[in-house]
Specification:
Structural class: mainly beta
Distance between the termini: 49 Å
CATH topology: Metal Binding Protein, Guanine Nucleotide Exchange Factor, Chain A
CATH architecture: Beta Complex
CATH superfamily: Peptide methionine sulfoxide reductase
Order of helices and strands: EEEEEEEEE
Radius of gyration: 15 Å
Number of domains: 1
Number of strands: 9
Helix content: under 10%
CATH class: Mainly Beta
Strand content: over 45%
Bound molecules: zinc ion
């Protein structure tokens, strides 16, 4: 494995609740009405800064799915799982925290405004 490069997301994003590495954009959330055995989860159609584990068949509330756990590249924690068989590969993140664009991570105020 080479050195991992972390992607930084702009805008309303969700981050790893353990190390605050950015995981996905709010705009990429397909569903918030999602639950894992650990609680609430968000379904994304695109995520960043994760690696996936081995594929396995798992019985979910919506039936049997081939999934793999996904791990935060920042801290190695399991942050959710990925649906392997669905054609677009959806990602469910159960350990996400919202990142507010106004937080200190985003120092610059919104651009625009005349004088
Ligand atoms: Zn993390």
């Amino acid at each position: 494995m080479g050195r991992l490069f972390l992607m930084h997301l702009e805008g309303n994003a969700y981050s790893c609740k353990f190390c605050r590495t950015h995981l996905g954009l709010a705009a990429d959330i397909i569903s918030k009405n999602f639950h894992s055995k650990h609680g609430k989860a968000y379904l994304f159609n695109r995520v960043v800064n994760v690696t996936s584990g081995i594929n396995e068949d798992r019985m979910m509330m919506t039936g049997l799915h081939t999934v793999s756990d996904i791990f935060c590249v920042g801290c190695g924690s399991i942050v959710g799982w990925k649906y392997v068989r669905s054609c677009d590969g959806y990602f469910a993140i159960s350990c996400a925290l919202p990142v507010r664009p106004s937080s200190k991570l985003y120092g610059a105020p919104a651009l625009g405004g005349c004088t």
